[in-house]
Amino acid sequence: EDKVVQSPLSLVVHEGDTVTLNCSYEVTNFRSLLWYKQEKKAPTFLFMLTSSGIEKKSGRLSSILDKKELFSILNITATQTGDSAVYLCAVKKSGGSNYKLTFGKGTLLTVNP
Amino acid sequence: EADIYQTPRYLVIGTGKKITLECSQTMGHDKMYWYQQDPGMELHLIHYSYGVNSTEKGDLSSESTVSRIRTEHFPLTLESARPSHTSQYLCATWEVGPQGWETQYFGPGTRLLVL
């Protein structure tokens, strides 16, 4: 059975701190890993990673994938209260007709002023 | 980004009522999905469609049904709502971009409360 495990489940930090969120996975025929940010409503897309060792960056957020060790990390530097959200990791399998994602339970990040 | 619309955004309804949650998208995406998400819990895929007249059940068993008569619309119906159906329902589409880039975009969701 495919599994996506995120840790920690919950994290509370102060503004300005740097956080690292973890996502490990066990899937057959891995294709890509996606990170989403979910505030009160729908998840919004952050990154898609397919290759090992290549960092994706967007402002204070960055992510990297390790396909050998089957995990990814999402880093947020100089956190702000607006970063408070649930961060979801999802994995897509390869295959011509496979367009589904397996989601982890998410990490709830709370950034206090 | 995909433009995905869901109505209603919030619905409070009594047990036994029939309800339809609407989802529409303007990007012409073939692949559409319905997820169910309870508060603080993970997303569970309940239905998906890879095109007109194509629908499949997802990983989580659901008493709801879906239809895909037009590319733009993917409505979800509950024939007889029960309190156990109380949840957030998220509609999504799949976009494939250049060089194999692909992702799933989500609508704003419908929060359903069945009394």
Main attributes?
heterodimer, A: 113 residues, mainly beta, Immunoglobulin-like, six-stranded mixed beta sheet, five-stranded antiparallel beta sheet, 11 strands, 0% helix, globular, B: 115 residues, seven-stranded mixed beta sheet, four-stranded antiparallel beta sheet
Description:
The complex is a heterodimer of chains A (113) and B (115). Chain A is mostly beta strands and 113 residues long. In chain A, 0% of the residues lie in helices and 59% in strands. Chain A starts with a strand and ends with a strand. The model of chain A has no long low-confidence stretch (mean pLDDT 92). Chain B has one domain: Immunoglobulin-like. Chain B is 0% helix and 50% strand. Chain B is built from no helices and 11 strands. Chain B is globular. The model of chain B has no long low-confidence stretch (mean pLDDT 92).
Number of strands of chain B: 11
DSSP summary: helix tally of chain B: 0
How far is the first residue's CA from the last residue's CA of chain A? 41 Å
Please write the CATH class name of chain B: Mainly Beta
**Which percent range fits the helix content of chain A?**
under 10%
Globally, the shape of chain B reads: globular
Provide the helix percentage of chain B: under 10%
What would CATH call the architecture of chain A?
A: Sandwich
Which SSEs are present, and which pair or pack?
The complex is a heterodimer of chains A (113) and B (115).
Chain A: E1 3-7, E2 10-14, E3 19-26, E4 30-38, E5 43-49, E6 56-58, E7 61-66, E8 71-76, E9 85-93, E10 101-103, E11 107-112
Parallel strand pairs in A: 2-11
Antiparallel strand pairs in A: 1-3, 3-8, 4-5, 4-9, 6-7, 7-8, 9-10, 9-11
Chain B: E1 4-7, E2 10-13, E3 19-25, E4 32-37, E5 44-51, E6 54-57, E7 65-66, E8 76-78, E9 87-96, E10 102-106, E11 110-114
Parallel strand pairs in B: 2-11
Antiparallel strand pairs in B: 1-3, 3-8, 4-5, 4-9, 5-6, 7-8, 9-10, 9-11
